[in-house]
Every structure is written in structure tokens, then in C-alpha cells.
Amino acid sequence: MGEPRQPCHAPPAAWWIPRAQPSRPGLWSAAVAEADRHEAAVEKRASPGGVLAVLLFAGLAVAAVVTILYRQNQGTSAPAKANTVVMAQIAFNPKTLVAAKGSEVTFENKDVAPHNVTADDPKIDSGTIAPGKAFRLVVQQPFEYRCTIHPGMDAKVVLAG
Amino acid sequence: MIKFLNDITGGHLLLWKVVLTSIVFALAGLQVAMAARFWGGPFLVALNPGTAVRVHRVSGRVALTLGVLVALTCIAGPAGPLSPTRVALHSIFGILVFTVLAVKFLLIKVLRQGDSVLPLIGSLLFLSFAAIWATSVADYVAAK
User: Fold this and answer.
1) Does the CB of B98 have a partner CB in chain A at under 8 Å?
2) What are the φ and ψ backbone dihedral angles of B12, each rounded to 5 degrees?
């Protein structure tokens, strides 16, 4: 008689099979070996979540590159009109506007992002200027202003004469 | 979209981005500390490796979720200019972070290999997050 064999109804390859019995002969060890092969195959398989993550991150990188390249050719260097400040590419253009006292100055947002015109004088506060919108102001005194949404975006208005 | 985000943040979208970017940077530091614990590097934190792995994964998911949100607001909003230099560097490192993340997840979740380069990838990610933080939040604080 050979060694006693495990019953034929040994559990199929699955997580509940004890792994610490590699030396058992017969069907039992075959089932364990099959479970190990199955587990190894699962570990080698690409995870769907991982594929999604790769697509998401690669997509973001590509989207950023495409956006930058596209916007390099959009909304830039609009010719400055008299008494007009254009907001584009996260900058005021011109940086220094010369205007006559009592004249109206227009701030046009030609950017893709919202901006505002904010000075130390609380009376000069445009609120958020959405892309495509404008803000008008009658100039009574010179002032420096900035966009509080975007640090480093600042400029000034000086009086002519 | 940006106008909507500005409205729901009471006109303080940039401040929210500053806060979230700082959290992501802090979590990136935690990621490195935890990874060092289970990669045999300098032990900065006295945790058992199993706990370090769990903290690494959970904090990584939080950091990436927040990072993706901030990146989307950047792409939908001000992305585009390449001047001044600070803005160009910010864009370059932002693109680099997501490229490296795509490579990392490709290696560990799809190809199931390349474990030996993970410390290098993790270090590169941390340095990139640091550069992103320095070229945005640090500038914001300095401007204040």
C-alpha cells in the first residue's frame, strides 16, 4: 500500500487552502501547487485600477502640455488701445498706463482665467472679472494695482502731464 | 469652470490651492519617510514596516487625489504662460510629476516589475513636489 491519499473532494485551489504543507503528496499537493500558480498569475496580472491610474496621470501630463502649447498662440499680445489695459497670459498689458485725469480706463480680460483689479484704495476694486468681461474706471489719481488671484500680476496707472 | 471655483471659494481659489498644495507637499514628505521605513533606508519614524506600508498607501491616495484636483484647476485656469521663469518651472515640474506618476503606476500596477527603481522614482516625485511647492506657494507667501 502506498501512502494514504487525500480525499478526491479536496477543496479547489483557493485562498483557504493552507500554504504551509508543500511536501504533501498526491492530489492535495497538486491542489496547493495549482493554488500557488493561480496566486502567482493573479499577482502578475495588471490591476484595472492601476491601468486607470496610468491613464489618468499620463492624460493629465498630456493635457498640460497641449494646453500650454495651445494657449501660447491664444489671447496674447493684443494690441493696446488708448486708455485700455488688457489682461492676458496672467499679466496686465501695458504695465504702466498713462491716462489723463478724469478719463475712463477700460480693463479687458482677454485671458482664460478670471482676474481682478485691486488697489490699496478700497474704492478701486473691480471684483472678479470673468474671461471676456471688462471693468471701467474713471481715473482721478495715479495708483498701483494688482490681481489678488494671481501673485505677481501687477501694474500701475499714472496721470499724463 | 474657474469662475465657478472662484465663486464657491468666495474668491479665494488661489488661497485654497496654496493650502492644498502645502498639504500635498507635507504628505509627499510623509511618503518618503514611510517608504524609507520599509525600503531599509534611514529610519526617520519608529513604526513597524506593515504600518508604514499602510500609512504610505493611504497618505499617497489622499495626496494624489488632492494633487489631481489642484492640477485640474491649474490646467483649466492659468496654465499657458511660460514667463516669468518661475511659471515655466512650475509648469515643467507639474508635467514631470504626472509623467513620473504614470511611469510608477505602469511599473507597479500594470507591468508588475521594476521594484528596484521605486526608491529613485519616489525621490524624484518628492523633489518635484518640492519644486512645485517652491514655485507657487513660496512665491505666494513671499508676495504677501
Assistant:
1) yes
2) -115, 40
